[in-house]
TrEMBL record:
It comes from Klebsiella pneumoniae. SMART domains: Haemagg_act (SM00912). This is Filamentous hemagglutinin. It comes from the Bacteria. InterPro entries: FhaB/CdiA-like_TPS (IPR008638), Pectin_lyas_fold (IPR012334), Pectin_lyase_fold/virulence (IPR011050). Residues 30-150 form the Filamentous haemagglutinin FhaB/tRNA nuclease CdiA-like TPS domain. The lineage of its organism: Bacteria, Pseudomonadati, Pseudomonadota, Gammaproteobacteria, Enterobacterales. It holds the Pfam family TPS.
Amino acid sequence: MFKFKASYVALAAVLTSSVVYADPTSYTHSSGATVIDIEKPNAAGVSHNLYRDFNVGANGTILNNSGDDVSHSTFGNIARNNNLTAGSASVILNEVTSKNASSLKGFIEVNGQKADVVIANPNGITCSGCSFVNTNKAILTTGKVNMTDDGAIGSYTVTGGTLTIGENGMNAANGYAVLLADAININGKVQANNALVSAGNFTMDNSSGSVTSAGKKATLIQMTVNPQYSIDVSSLGGIEANSISMVGNNIGFGVRNKGSIVANSSLQLTSNGNLLNKGTIKSNGLLSQVATASGITNDGSIAGAYYLMLSSGDYIVNTGSLSGGQLIATANGNITNGDSGTMTGTSGLSLTSGGKIRNEEKASLLSNNQIAATAIWLFPQ
């Protein structure tokens, strides 16, 4: 015998742009979780849900994507969503229309057919202890969601907003985690099958993943006196996934890592500013790429199991460890291997500089094969 919902929590409507948007119907399940009966999907399979507030507490939230009654292995009976008589959604878009930020502290589970889950809030999102269950993609963004004429999600345009992963982290281990915001602070662990982290002002095509930067530039103070970072990973933060792509789109805003970024397969890190690494960046895949418009400063460890390619529009300074099966480092400016830094290319080491290459007294260039260095000036000490 199914226990049907006896009452609903009527959530307030919000007036935005002269249109009244009512929050989807929701109620508290006997388990303590909040159940949201998502809106009817359109012809493109998108259920577009508008909220005054979207927050997830410790008891979690269930997005009800089933037109049938469900006997859940964990939560027991969940009554059918009567909005879904014509079928379930493939994408569940949750969009905040007020000026309130979102706090996600518990699980978000899709009941019924698996779907992509999008949470869009231009005022900011903090995820600390949030997890995603029965989702293909978990997309958190402070950007505007642009719909196509047929009702599909066409692109995301980010012009502001901060996305923070708190100390309790984010778990999307069985799916794809996508983080899109002007500034992204990672103070806890992000676990995902695959992860995309893109920061700055930009538009990202939803189908191809191609990104068009808006060309936002840092001021001199933001680059020097008080450095600003598009992506900032603290010592307690990090990302672990099969493949990881990190992009800092704003000009002059760097990427800073003090934590642990580990890809079991491919790794690509691109910054329109500099990279400051004091933590661990590691990939076990065939190709690991780090490219910056400005400099690369490494006081930690950057490692690629096979090919590690570093490309800098300015300098490379290493006082930590750079290593790969093949280590290929290219800089328009100087390359400095300082202090007790090591650059290791087990099968080959190639350094190309538009300025000087300097290997200081306690530093090491190591390879079991060939070491090639090309520069205007070579300074071994």
